[in-house]
Amino acid sequence: MAVSDERAVARFEAVVLPHLDAAYNLARWLTRDEHDASDVVQESMVRALRGFETYHGGDGRAWMLSVVRNTCYTWLRKNRAAAPEPLPDDLIEADQGPLSDPAARLVQAADAERLRCAIDQLPVEFREIFVLRELEGLSYKEIGQVAELPIGTVMSRLSRARRRLQESLAEPNEGET
What we know:
Blueprint: H1 3-16, H2 20-31, H3 34-50, H4 60-79, H5 102-121, H6 124-135, H7 140-147, H8 151-170
Helix pairs in contact: 2-3, 2-4, 2-6, 3-4, 4-7, 5-8, 6-8, 7-8
């Protein structure tokens, strides 16, 4: 391997590898399957490495998430004619530490399940914006770069996603009155 190749690989690793968790998280929410998400992230890494010469600095996370998003949509078009399966129950867990009270753990698990289902029911164009903002913490500008959308569209979709989530979560559970 030539010295310039070694530098390019080192630069690629420095820019891309810190964002693998975010890449997997986005892929998992879009594919709704952990195994498919792993495949998409792997394919994204290959595409990112091949196209790394197009990266000219800036936000590495936004660049990598753009690659993941585009790879995801390509993969979904090829592999998913039918509606995808819902995410596993363990995806959303409250980050409040272990609870000793079994009743409190049950309520927490039920709330997490309701939230997971509500997010899962969002249309994909709202779900991706919501995940990028609320779960990955991207700015509107970064989301616009990832999704190739104007900031106004990002804000509009995020607002609609939040409103749909509020409406969905305000509805009583089955069996409640």
